[in-house]
Amino acid sequence: MANKPKRINRPWLPERKPFERQRHASDFDYNGRKWRNVRRSKLDKDPLCEYCAKVDKVTQATVVDHEPRAKVLIARGDDPYDEKYLFSSCKTCHNSKSGRERHL
């Protein structure tokens, strides 16, 4: 039966740190309390998809979307929590819009 080899102590090497993802200033915290509260208030205020409403279609909104993207707003120095940059949308409209943005 195979045994795990003993660990070799090399005191001249620095101790390895566990992997930590570096956070950038442009990262937006979608799990934060502030975002959850802003999202909930936006969906309470506008419960229907704003993109579907432009084509006279009634769909319940489930996603709050930034227009332009949150990274762009942060880079410009704008507040990504400001309601003028937020749109209520259904999952279908959000996915198609996000897909188009990724391929620009």
Q: How would you describe this structure to a colleague?
A:
The protein is mostly helical and 104 residues long. The chain contains 4 helices and 2 strands. The protein has a two-stranded antiparallel sheet with strand order 1-2. The protein starts with 32 loop residues before the first helix and ends with a helix. The mean pLDDT is 88.
The residue-averaged pLDDT reads 88
SSE-based structural type: mainly alpha
How many helices? The count is 4
Order of helices and strands: HHEHEH
Radius of gyration: 22 Å
Portion of residues within helices: 25-40%
The major beta sheet can be summarized as:
2 strands, antiparallel
Low-pLDDT segments: none
- Major sheet: arrangement of strands: 1-2
Shape: elongated
Sum this structure up briefly.
The protein has 104 residues and is mainly alpha-helical. It has helices at 33-45, 50-53, 70-76, 91-102; strands spanning 63-66, 86-89. The protein has a domain at 33-103.
List keywords for this structure.
4 helices, 104 residues, elongated, single chain, two-stranded antiparallel ribbon, mainly alpha
Q: Which helices and strands, and how do they pair?
A:
Elements (H helix, E strand, L loop, with lengths): L32 H13 L4 H4 L9 E4 L3 H7 L9 E4 L1 H12 L2
Antiparallel strand pairs: 1-2
